[in-house]
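Entry 14. Ran structure prediction on the chain below.
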Amino acid sequence: MDKEHRMLDARILQAQGFKQAEIAQMIGVSDRTVRTYLKKLPEPRKRPIRFSKLDPFKNIIEEQLEKNPSHNGELLYERIAGLGYSGKKTIMKAYIAKIRRKLATQAVQRFETEPGRQAQVDWKEFGKQIVDGKETKLYAFVIVLGYSRMPFIRFTTNMRQSTLLACHTLAFDHFEGVPHEILYDNMRTAFAPDTEGYWRATKRLSACAVHYGFIPHHCRIRRPETKGKVERTVGYLDNNFWPRLEGTALSLCELNERVADWISAISTKPLVDFGESRSERFAQEKAFLQPLPAGNFDVRESVPLVVSRESTIRYETNKYSVPPEFIGATVQLLIHPLHRNVELIAENGKVRNFVLENAGTRASIVFPEDKARIEARWRRDRARLQTRRKPRKKVVRPCIDVEIRHPAAYEAFVPSAEEAVL
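Output, structure tokens:
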């Protein structure tokens, strides 16, 4: 019996209750040897360190798979072979499979964030629907706080950048605070790739983030599991809320009221994983949110328009009067994406606020304060035009002051061909 087996037997006999002297007699060694066996922990066998030809290239493979786990293995092999790899292709493929399994495990592994730390954002598309009596595309903006799972949802008819930012301001007002970071997928209105392929926050999202004090993060491409909290909420919205609207006439205002009621209802139900409701966890999380700034971020779109000679601007086929002193100038129409209230801005400041007419109605709106001024401008310009006109010169043409009553009399005054030649 070798040393390792005797040591193992000594430990087994000790666990069975035998004393050192009895163990020594049973395995045929001295008491001191048994004492040494029982004190020394068994050591794992040392395996020889083996180096692989792939080792210098593993970092390249891992970096590429981090960016895109489904990257083609043949292309990876060609790349590292060009850099000097001389090993077999099967070794590289086995290592790629190992890294992909590791990345997949990390992706689906649930991670919990501390209160107030993170929120996740996504859009849900509902295709074309009849909303407010006309066919249009319908979307839902969804943001979920990571700790409490408390959502905020807003239905819209577009996914423009200004709409995305406006929904952010509504969500922050609803939560009465701002999370420290917000996670997005590759929506182009939030993030866009630069020349090197890295995704950067857009200028408008960055400005909004600075205003409210949150950090925008981009989740890895083709890795939707990293924002699983909002994905589950989107699925719940689609499977639990949306079927309740079947057969009902849709109104955008009513949709947002009903989804707010739905959120209030589900927020009181306990979450299976925690035994607490969204409302209970939100009460804990709310204290960790950042305070709101003094004013909301300006999410309005600026549309440049040239004032016509008629002292009007045209937008969505409709005409709106402008004070005549701006004829020929470029003014800015600031349009909020969630309602029809707009502000007209000129170089010297604000001109007026008004409500846009429905698009495509071809309306012509003359504001009362503009009407008299436009008419006065028209009369003044007409008077100036008339004073600038030069009188026409009279062209004196020879005429015959004879009343012609008969062809013979006419012939007496018309020269013959021979006379004309002379």
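The CA atoms of residues 161 and 282 lie 28 Å apart. Will compare against last week's run tomorrow.
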